[in-house]
Design goal:
heterotrimer, A: 261 residues, alpha/beta, five-stranded mixed sheet, 37% helix, B: 236 residues, mainly alpha, 8 helices
Chain lengths: 261, 236, 229
């Protein structure tokens, strides 16, 4: 009985210490892997274009930051519950989200694309998907887009917890098409599974649903943090930081980033 | 001999899986113990409490045991972390951010508490009333009765039910992965499988690790039961 | 709390409820179909089959249902998909759906838990009745179908009622493999509107009601059994 009590006390203290001691800034991101932007490698460390951007921006702001994973479909509620300070997870700045949270300036803008089986006709209209299954990651602007345009035309929608699960099912033939971000899908094509499919092209843009690029998601009242982040983005861009990052990940010209000027 | 992804160290996922397994056990043990405490409170409320305590305990056990764990885990995770945060602000501490493991422990403990209440209540009710009457006749205070008579007599009766709950809590830790905020064995498995695309391999290994946990637990629980039941008559 | 989403999503909720009930019924049906032989063989033998059944129950009860589900859907499912013969086959429309794997995983799991219950139930039937049946000249098969199985099932009813409730509580896992059951609908609402608590609370109440109904139904059948007290 005594052993139990001391064990309990030790565990409680550990948990309490862990809870109260926080890093200066904590950013939440998708728990599911999202290459090339954020992934966790075998050693449990974060890597990726977006992770490196976060580290660089924090350096600009002179803050110590950590990245924590959270299920994507609960990330906005978690932000509002103050579980972390911001969302640094390729979150598109669309109208629906702007009702709940505030965004920093855009730090990249890439196209949403349609992905389908290899060798088929690359032209598509909403009617192409009648009776077909489209895979999307749940709670994404891509999912909202597919809901708005393709489901009324007769497509069936399958929502996955992570983009990687959607990709896996695409490779397994369990969905016929994918609507997802172009850059992340290029990463997918580079893998062995990616041989199944090809990118058909960008979907007709709808800024209200797809947003105009991604930004850091923040609570409405955190204007000070937003201004700090925007200043950091500007100074990082001025140094040519985005160009270096793009060059490292071979993304030059493939997506819009804040201009150097 | 082993493929690289299974190695320990930087490139392999073996250490990730083991770290996940260790955290799973930590969560399971902590939730189980806290759940036991809640279970005792609940059982006493149900057996000896006034109408208000009995009502609250009844609602607690009925609702928690009738609703899927997945729903409860999500609700408690969001509501619970918000509640604790609000509590912290009210006290003047500022918003308290609960780390993922602690959140998982508290949520699972809350669920375990409802089940434990029923098991402990049943076990206490199975104690021959004569023993309790004799203890009171000797002039023992209620606390003494509880510590000296009820607790030792209740434990062997409760072991099968509690053993089952222990198995359940180990498996429920996997469900906590839906929040994405806790790094335990199932989350580690998903990361490894997603990174390497070797789904079958990693889910299979993970299943074996869970199985090992339950088998080892079973072994020790049987030993414990035999020890606690020494001196009692063997069941015909 | 914001309830504005309710009218728009109500039909989806009804569909989801339907799917949940389907999952429950099919899982219990196929699961018990599996559980009866698994339980029986542990009582009668042969030895190697009984050991296999015992091992099966241990594995099913010793590993999380979530892992069993993922193992089947992402593990087996993706392996199957690499074979073009499977993709062209007649079964592909079924095999590509999460629904199939959910029911498969639930049924296999129920086979393990139900198997334990049936084992106890078969053992609980008084030997005298079985001996009397044999004395009447009934073949072992007749004894099984006329005496042993019905009596065992009746004895097992309370435990089976509990199992059905447990299976109901397991059905939300199907939402993790793209099945839009009752819980999946709550998820969908949350994902599209960012409203958290009202959808979850709604499904919580529905599950409560369903559990209540199951307990009542089983209670009714239990009362029907004549029992010597």
């Amino acid at each position: 009985m005594k052993k139990f009590r001391s064990l309990l006390l030790a565990a409680a203290t550990l948990a309490a210490v862990n809870t109260i001691a926080k890093a200066d800034l904590v950013f939440g991101t998708d728990a599911a892997p999202y290459p090339p932007f954020t992934t966790q490698n075998a050693a449990g460390e974060w890597e990726g274009w977006e992770y490196e951007l976060m580290v660089a921006i924090c350096a600009e702001m002179n803050e110590k930051c950590t990245m924590v994973p959270i299920a994507w479909d609960g990330i906005i509620p978690a932000l509002l519950e103050k579980k972390f300070d911001g969302i640094f997870g390729s979150m598109a700045m669309n109208d629906e989200r702007k009702k709940q949270i505030m965004f920093s300036d855009m730090y990249y803008d890439s196209m949403t694309v349609m992905m389908g089986p290899k060798g088929a006709d690359k032209n598509f209209t909403p009617e192409t998907f009648k009776g077909k299954t489209i895979g999307v990651q749940a709670s994404t602007s891509n999912a909202n887009y597919a809901e708005k345009y393709y489901v009324p035309a007769g497509a069936a929608l399958k929502a996955y917890k992570g983009q990687d699960e959607a990709n896996a099912d695409m490779a397994a033939g369990r969905v016929d098409y994918l609507v997802a971000d172009g850059i992340s899908q290029m990463s997918f094509l580079a893998t062995a599974d990616g041989g199944c499919c090809e990118i058909y092209g960008p979907v007709p843009h709808d800024a209200a649903v797809l947003g105009n690029g991604v930004g850091v998601g923040l609570r409405m009242e955190d204007t000070a943090l937003r201004d700090k982040l925007n200043a950091a983005f500007k100074s990082f861009a001025a140094k040519g930081g985005f160009e270096t990052l793009n060059a490292k990940y071979k993304l030059e010209g493939l997506m819009a980033v804040p201009p150097k000027g | 001999m082993f493929p690289e992804i299974l190695e320990f160290g930087r490139k392999g996922f073996a250490d990730e899986l083991l770290r996940g397994a260790a955290i799973t056990l930590l969560i399971a043990v902590s939730s189980f113990i806290i759940g036991l405490v809640l279970g005792h409170i609940g059982a006493i409320a149900k057996l000896y409490g006034g109408p208000v305590s009995r009502g609250i305990a009844a609602i607690y056990t009925t609702v928690i045991r009738a609703v899927p764990e997945l729903v409860l885990i999500l609700l408690l995770f969001f509501a619970g972390t918000r509640g604790i945060s609000a509590l912290g602000e009210a006290v003047g501490y500022g918003p308290i951010d609960i780390n993922g493991v602690l959140a998982a422990i508290l949520v699972l403990a809350f669920v375990q508490g409802a089940y434990s209440t029923e098991v402990i209540r049943g076990a206490i009710q199975a104690i021959p009333v004569g023993q309790l009457e004799a203890a009171r006749a000797f002039g023992m205070s209620p606390l003494q009765v509880f510590r000296r008579i009820v607790l030792p007599a209740m434990l062997p009766n409760a072991i099968p039910g509690l053993a089952n709950l222990w198995m359940v809590v180990i498996k429920d830790t996997a469900l906590v992965s839906v929040t994405g905020a806790t790094f335990e064995l199932f989350t580690a498995t998903k990361i490894a499988a997603g990174f390497t695309k070797r789904y079958f391999l990693f889910y299979f290994i993970s299943a074996c690790i869970y199985l090992a946990m339950t088998l080892v637990s079973n072994f020790f629980i049987q030993k414990l039961e035999r020890r606690l039941r020494r001196g009692q008559q063997e069941l015909g | 709390m914001d309830w504005s989403w309710f009218p728009k999503y109500f039909p989806l909720f009804v569909d989801g409820l339907f799917i949940t009930i389907q999952l429950l019924v099919l899982a219990m049906f196929f699961g018990m179909l599996l559980a009866v032989p698994i339980g029986l063989v542990q009582v009668t033998g042969p030895r190697w089959l009984a050991t296999f059944a015992r091992g099966y129950c241990t594995v099913m009860r010793g590993t999380p249902l979530l892992i069993q589900l993922y193992l089947l859907y992402y593990g087996v499912g993706t392996i199957l998909a690499t074979y073009p013969e499977v993709r062209q086959s007649f079964f592909w429309p079924i095999l590509r759906e999460g629904y199939f794997y959910a029911i498969l995983a639930f049924a296999l799991n129920e086979g393990g838990y139900g198997g334990e219950i049936m084992r106890g139930a078969f053992l609980s039937v008084p030997k005298g009745e079985l001996e009397a049946a044999r004395a009447f000249g009934m073949s072992p098969m007749k004894v099984l179908t006329r005496i042993w199985l019905p009596r065992a099932l009746r004895n097992a009813l309370p435990a089976l009622g509990g199992e059905t409730v447990l299976m109901l509580k397991a059905t939300p896992l199907a939402a993790l493999v793209t099945v839009v059951d009752l819980f999946g609908v709550a998820d969908r609402v949350r994902q599209e509107t960012y409203i958290i608590y009202p959808p979850l609370l709604t499904v919580l109440v529905v599950y409560l009601v369903l559990t209540f109904i199951i307990v009542r139904v089983f209670g009714h059948f239990e009362r029907q059994i004549p029992s010597r007290r």
